Amino acid sequence: MNSGIEWLKWVKRIQAIAQTGLAYSKDVYDLERYEELRALSIEILENYTSVSADEIKLHFGSETGYATPKVDIRGVVFQDDKILLVREKADNAWALPGGWADIGYSPSEVVVKEIEEESGYITTPKRLLAVLDKKFHNHPPEQYHVYKVFIQCEIAAGEPKGGVETLEVGFFNREEIPTLSLERNTPAQIQTMFQFLDNPQKTTIID
Question: Which pTM value belongs to this model?
C-alpha cells in the first residue's frame, strides 16, 4: 500500500481494535471508548471516500467478534497452455473464477463451487498455489484486509457458460490476457500462475 493511502491502513487497524474490544471488554467505559473508535473510523472513511456512512456502517457494523482478515479464494484452471478467466458483470472485466470463502465450506469446496457457478465447469482441486496478502499487491484500496488463496484445479466435466455474476467464459494464453478486474486479480498474479504451469515443481507462494 503506498503512502498516499496509508490512512486507509490506519482506519482498518482502528476498526479492528474497536471491533475486538467491543467483543471482549466488560468495562462499560472501555466499551464506550471502543464505540467512539469505531465511529471515528467510519467518519474518516466517509470523508475520504465516496462511500456513504450508511454503507460503511453496514460493512463495519455487521462485523462482530475478534477482527480477522476476509478470505478470497480463486480457481486456477489451465487447458492447452491457456488459463480460464470469467468476465464479471460487476465491472465488465475478467478474473479467475472465485469469491469470498463461505461459512461451512472448506477451501476446496468453495473453489469447486465458485468455478462451476461462474464458468459452468465441474473441477477437481489439485494443488494450493499461493496465499497472498492483498495489501502487498497492486489492487485498488478497499475497506477490508484480505487474504487471497489460489488453488489449481482440473476440469472433470461441464460446458462453458456464464452465471449469475459472470457474462462470459474463456481461456487465454499469457500474451493475450484481457482487461482484468483489478479488485479480484492483478496482471502480475496471472503471470505468476503461469509460472506454475511452466514449472509443476514450483513451491507454494506465501506472503
Answer: 0.76
